[in-house]
Amino acid sequence: MNRRDFLTGLGSTAISLPLILDGFTTSVYANSPLLDKVAELATLQDRILVLIQLSGGNDGINTLIPLDQLPTYYAIRRAVAIPENRIVKLTDTIGLHPSFAPIKSLFDDGKLVIVQGVSYPMVNQSHFRSTDIWFTASDAEQYLSSGWLGRFVNYEAPTYPVGYPNETRPDPLAIEIGGAMSLTLQGHKHAMGITIRDLSAFEQLVSGQAASGGSVAQRTGKAGNRIDFIREVQAQSQKYSARIRSIAEQGKNLAAYPTKGNNPLADQLRIVARLISGGLQTRIYVVNLGGFDTHWSQTDIHDTTTGIHADLLRYLAEGIRVFQQDLALLKLEHRVVGMTISEFGRRPATTSNGTDHGTAGPMFLFGAPVRGGILGKNPSLTDLLPDGNLTMQYDFRQLYTSILAQWFHATPQHLDSVMLKSFQQLPILQTATVRASEHTHSSPLMTLRNYPNPCSHETTIEYFLPRASTVKLSLTDTQGREIYPIFYGHQQQGMQSLRFDVSSLASGVYFYALRTEYGFVSAQISIVR
Asked: Where do the domains of the chain lie, and which CATH numbers do they carry?
């Protein structure tokens, strides 16, 4: 049995090493790769994605209440509808569940993007199958054994695990907190991250206590070969474990998180912020909030503003808000973008005091670099699919593609390898900031944005220069190659502004870059006509 067959047959949970962090057990998998970033994208290494999985299928209609359809809302959702006087107004057409209200401050600050009606064609309403589809970014009738983030890593680190960890690549690419390693981090051959969870049952196995006095293989034949392999895995994993322990000791939290145990999502995000502040080079974190399968008891029968769903929305809103506060206090919010996913939404009509499996639902992207605002419109509660479900506005893979291209600056070849087909990008990043080339915490930061965005004929580009420099501003392709010059010249320190005529450009998403003597930043323009 070779390594791959052994891992496949035994499962990734069998090769883990425990480490306690804030009450969680960190299990470091042998097949956890590190980011092998190419030199030309070195300035993007600081960028981090936090993926929040809302397991069970979140009820988007009670999360974002359609104020423009209240009569229909109350007619079809009598059992779970939120009283009008308890709805928290977000915009003229969207209201928030009162438990979700803490998210409003992020929206008001332009740090939250709401994407309405996210789904995929031919939705599968099985939890297991639909979750696999979201994790692998497959079509409904396509079965894949690798996840979209796992393939993202495979493209950049095709030789793993040979030579890992090493002095220049000491950290794993991905960390999953609060559950078993999910399919989203599975690569073509190996799982691509570490998981933080309780694996005490494996402590004795991987401790090597049964292997004293020479190779186990010499005493137990084929079974010994497998145990020797586990011991080899353990030795490699200990290097990751020691590194994470060291980073966790250096890291800190500055925001006032809820008391441990009172908010399961905040407990996980606290660890993420701590590891980021400690200097861990991991760029992808996956956390999980379960319990959204609310067929019944979604609300209390005497008060629809309370119940299971209300608690979950409070965990979500408070967790994201305090995490964002922590990043701001740590001066790290320019480095992090977060995104929620859920395998499907819930149906418009109710069943008793709950909701059944549905189709489309909202996604939320948050962080200082996001564009802020709303994509799409309230789902119609009357123009439904034949089975009574909501219609789709955006394919979830458009969001994946947008994150990879706009945040991680994946090349077209990289996108083809990860997403397997092309998806139209959405304008989700308003400002993209990158540290200057020296890569120190004291490096000056440039900022870059344009407004309006989307635009049709003209947009204003604004950017801040920390010090005087020769400036080159140009339209680029996704690989950063100049395709159209916008400005070239010397400018003084401070905020700069210029108008850019886009009337000659076709509709679509474009990238533009600001290059100076001490670094560069890039962002995107969405042209819509």
From this structure: 3-419 (3.40.720), 447-527 (2.60.40.1930)
